[in-house]
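Batch manifest line 216
LIGAND: glutathione
JOB: complex structure
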Amino acid sequence: MAKLDFHFSPGACSLATHIALEEAGATFTPKPTYTRKGQTRTPEYLALNPKGKVPLLIVDGKPLTENTAILTFLSRSYPNAKLLPAGDALKEAEALSFIAWCASGVHPVMSRFFGPQNFCDLPDSADNVKALAAKATAANFALIEKALEGKDWVFGEWSVADAYIFVFYNWATKLGLDVSQYPNYGKHFERMKQRPAVQRALAREAEALAAMDKAA
Ligand SMILES: N[C@@H](CCC(=O)N[C@@H](CS)C(=O)NCC(=O)O)C(=O)O
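JOB STATUS: finished
ARTIFACT:
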């Protein structure tokens, strides 16, 4: 098995990869890298990932970025863990389509809540940026709600698509967004929290956060 070093920031989108690593039963070295403390912008980190983002998975010394690529890599590397549907080209592509949408359609919209000034720098525009983000997020959550209709998991069996959407619901609760219209999604969130792998990832992230806050 490859040697894996995993850079994550507590609560960030890297949680999807973190859950996947735990679900796979992978052996990896956690490297907490706190975005809000500028740790993804140091010269050392930028040498590994010039994009200055998490997640970053170093595989036998080679940096791999982007949740979509990392989740696919983990799925292929740990076939027994069944992280993504496999063996049927169309089912595999449908799962990748969902993951790609998480990365390119859902995440960037929610990023506006965390840094409205990066989207519009007109004076007093932050509330408008957030209001538009709330509208677009509601439309995305409605699609996720529909994807979970009558099912425990997005693709019937658990997959990393479930880990990805867990991140967004977690953000929504932290941001205080109204999630009452998404009962399937809410139940999915609770179901996810029952999984031992999710509990291990969350516990490690909470521990990393506490250590970083203490060091501040
Ligand atoms: N497209 C990337 C997005 C990665 C990303 O935006 N990560 C955020 C955390 S959720 C980050 O590292 N932000 C730090 C920064 O921009 O300084 C992926 O899906 O992996």
